Amino acid sequence: xxxxxxxxxMSIRLVFMGASDxxxxxxxxxxxxxxxxxxxxxxxxxxxxxGRGQKLTSQRVKELALDRNIPVIQPSNMRSPDMLDGLAExxxxxxxxxxxxHLLPAELLSLPRYGCLNVHPSLxxxxxxxxxxxxxxxCGDRTTGVTIMLMDEGLDSGPIVAQKTIEIAPESDAGVxxxxxxxxxxxxxxxTLPRWVAGEIETRAQDGDQATYSALLSSGEGEMDWRLDxxxxxxxxxxxxxxxxSYTYWKGKRLKIIRVVPLxxxxxxxxxxxxxxxxxxxxxxIVREGILELCELQVEGKKSMSTKDFLLGRRDFxxxxxx
Length: 323
Fold this sequence. Notes:
- This protein has helices at about 20-30, 60-65, 80-90, 105-110, 130-140, 175-195, 230-240, 305-310, and strands at about 10-20, 35-45, 50, 55, 70-75, 95-100, 115-120, 145-150, 160-165, 245-250, 255-265, 275, 280-285, 290-300, 305.
- The chain is α/β, with parallel strands linked by helices.
- The protein folds into 2 domains: about 10-210, Rossmann fold (3-Layer(aba) Sandwich); about 220-315, Methionyl-tRNA Fmet Formyltransferase, Chain A, domain 2.
- The chain has a 7-stranded mixed sheet. Strands 10, 11, 12, 13, 14 and 15 form a 6-stranded antiparallel sheet that branches.
- Helix 1 runs parallel beside helix 2 (about 60-65) and helix 5 (about 130-140) packs antiparallel against helix 7 (about 230-240).
- The model has no long low-confidence stretch (mean pLDDT about 95).
- Strand 6 (about 95-100), helix 4 (about 105-110) and strand 7 (about 115-120) form a beta-alpha-beta unit.
């Protein structure tokens, strides 16, 4: 890599690689930089089919790029010679990555003179991998943050360029927390890039002994296990909202559980049994330790609703056993 800090009055050619709503925020931040920074291409995931009609849908990152007349590349293989040749022709000075979910090969990492910077929504080395926001909530962390790192060939293992910490509100779910981190990440990137290009930042190595890892989520992970305690189930509901979502089954239909409150109360009955709660609380489910109050539910094929509205016409819900 060439020495940073040379000719930084010239235009800096940027390539962005990312997918997901988090990446949209980071790309927006790049596009808000002054005219000395030019985003010459955006790499994102291929279009996918989604919904009941299996319509072909594109990433919001792609839509934003096209709206700004920026070329979009959607490679299926980041190691193919054609892909690497095409990237080299763009002559990027810097590559910025956010939620791209591709490990970049050494040939790609060595292309830009200012390296490849990854904006990762965790305080690395904690929660490396593809699901750091969900993992932070599952682990009961009280703080998290955003790390900008200089990428190497490992999984989120490169040296740290900048970090910013935020608190996790007790009621925050993964969707809310990711939005907060996207805003923080965008601000941190705008503050960091000029100093990085000017050679004013010294990186620091991550402590690999402190590293933890998050796994890629699957659609079936949100099924409720009433043998767990109320606190852990509450964390799971928040961590899996909005995707893959927490759910159980009632009368053969999937019942999505959107919002809950863990209670220390004890009730007689079996795990998974729905019980009436005193006062205005509504209903809860008996779990291994305590009761999990159900606050907001969504019947398969319907809109979400408060438990109070759900119970209208469904009085047999109380006393039922959820699978």
